[in-house]
Amino acid sequence: MPGDIHARLAALPAFPTLTGARVRLREPRTDDIDGLFALFADPRVMRYWSSAPMRSRMQAEGKVEEMREAFERRESLDWVVADRRDDLAIGSCTLFRFDARHRRAEIGYALRSALWGRGLASDAVAMALDWGFRTLGLHRIEADIDPRNEASRALLLRLGFSSEGVLRERFFVGDQATDSELFGLLAQEWHGRRR
Fold first, then answer.
1. What percent of the chain has pLDDT over 70?
2. What residues does the N-acetyltransferase domain cover (predicted)?
């Protein structure tokens, strides 16, 4: 059902917390700085990112502040992915670039490399997708990845996304031009898989 996405975002009384069997998506906190620094300073995590790895803890402090301010402006939802057992930050999952007219947004995600291969990123992304489609009334969610990132590609395909093409040399990471592969998922495809 169509609705004003910006009005729905503005009406949120607080940062939404989503809880699954193994992970929680919650608001960023000051005590997440070290966990987020470990995440975004890891060259393995950042290998296919559109920016270089963090080099100082101050960058992680700034990241937490940016995440909070983006929510205050309702420009993005930058969830911290936390382990349900100890609530420590192990990743991030973001809905951003909201387009109210076309009921569209983008999703991004990252997970500590020591935890890869356990399905935790899939769990986190699935919760964010479900929330975006059901709560915000999004019609389409897009993801944009480096096509060499086979693990991310497999995650998106597993969740029902379709590859919609490669944009050649779209980003520079340092001095290297990299391609970008666009994926899309429609609300009816998501709901059809969840029945």
1. 98
2. 23-185
